[in-house]
Specification:
The chain is 59% helix and 0% strand. By secondary structure, it is mainly α. It has one domain.
């Protein structure tokens, strides 16, 4: 399943890079911050949802595009190209009542670093 690609070590690496980038932005003077999304995260859940919400480079959508392109599975890539927005929406909507699996992965990896 395509969404299985979103839950492993590559996701952890992407989230950690996102956390580092946001931490660096949080240290800037307010006048130099590029947007309102440069605050420090309060817990792993907060970090994962910010990663999901980031539509630019370093965010979940960017990660998902890359991981599917690199997976080598032609059928998965075909499905992704045919219904990318739907797959992303259904994946994220599945966490209305439960934490995304990336939260547990972060907690096992030591939680927030900043």
């Amino acid at each position: 399943m395509i969404t299985d690609l979103f839950n492993g070590q590559p996701a952890l690496a992407s989230i950690r890079a996102f956390e580092e980038a946001r931490f660096a932005l949080s240290k800037l003077d307010d006048a130099d911050k590029p947007d309102k999304h440069t605050t420090v995260f309060v817990d792993c859940r907060d970090l994962v949802w910010a990663w999901f919400a980031e539509s630019g480079p370093g965010g979940f959508v960017d990660f998902a595009d890359r991981i599917v392109a690199e997976c080598g599975d032609v059928e998965m890539q075909r499905q992704w190209n045919a219904d990318r927005a739907g797959i992303l929406a259904r994946y994220i909507e599945g966490f209305d009542a439960v934490d995304p699996p990336q939260v547990a992965v972060l907690e096992v990896d030591g939680g927030l670093r900043h």
